[in-house]
Each structure stands twice: as structure tokens, then as C-alpha cells.
Specification:
By secondary structure, the chain is α/β, with parallel strands linked by helices. The chain is built from 5 helices and 7 strands; from the N terminus they run ααββαββαββαβ. It folds into 2 domains: about 30-100, Histidine-containing Protein, Chain: A (2-Layer Sandwich); about 105-175, Histidine-containing Protein, Chain: A, CATH 3.30.1340. The strands form 2 sheets. Strands 1, 2, 3 and 4 form a 4-stranded mixed sheet that branches. Strand 6 (about 140-150), helix 5 (about 150-165) and strand 7 form a beta-alpha-beta unit.
Amino acid sequence: MNRRVLVSLVLLASWGTIALAAQRPQQVPERAEERIRREVRHEILMLPYYDVFDNIAYKVEGYKVTLIGQVTRPTLKSDAGNVVKRIEGVEQVDNQIEVLPLSTMDDQLRLALYRAIYGYPALERYAMPVIKPIRIIVKNGHVTLEGIVDSEADKNMVNIRANGVSGVFSVTNNLVVAKSK
């Protein structure tokens, strides 16, 4: 074999190896992914207008973060995407957060639901933290409850209180009972 053909074969073989390596999904160390998860959670909780009527969740897959949920302000959606983009190691942000429609009726329902749930004596302890554990999402009169409660009884009580608010069309109770230690 002549030298020129041999060099060409070696170059083609190495180019094929490089191309295969580029096609493989990048392996992300578990520690890096966990750090990104912690920082995303922290940045979302630190958003200045994030309140009890907003629900932002996220999924971390390698260096990609997907934001999901519902917010009452369009600026909160863009703010969430912007702070997550600035986290070291995040290469891509897929912002799928839904901006809830403006509605005076929904705003009135939000306040009534807040009073019914957080103002009820047996549930007042949930009103103490700055970041409320029960999220109240209202869209066109339909209510979704997200978050964490201490017991099944509390979950049922929140559901009963929400269903008792006048003007609510339906309640979807997605509350999760915290695992007892």
C-alpha cells in the first residue's frame, strides 16, 4: 500500500471516531446535575414576585432545564427563564411556563381561596412560612391545588375549604402528603 492511501485511511478512521463521539449524548456527572437542581430551586424561590398564586416546577436533564407550571404575571415567566439561564453549567432552558389569563373573577377567587384555606384555624400553620407550601392556581374559575401538606386529613380539609368557595367551578387537588419521619 502506498503511504498516501495509508494516511488517508488513518485520517478517515480517526474522523469516524470523532463523529461517533460527537453523536453520543454527553454524560453529566450526577453531582453537577444535583448542583444545578439546587441552584434552580434557589433561584426560583428568590424571584421577587413569586407568590402563592404561582406554581413553577422544573426538570433537569443533564445541562438542560425545562421550566413548567403556571404564573399570574408574564414578567415572572421571563424572569424565571432568565435567572435559570445564568446558572453555571446550564446550557439550554426550555421555558414552558403558562401565563394565566387576566381575569377579575379569577383574582377575586384567588383572594377568597387564600382566606378560606390560610385563614382557617386548623390550617393557619401553613400560612407561617414566607414560601407557602400550598399553591393556589386559578384558571377561568377552575382551581388546582399544588404543594405539600403534613397529613391526609389536612389535604382533605384544604380540598373541602376550596370547594366551599362560591364561584369555583372545579377543584383539582394535587397536594402531596409529606412522608413522616
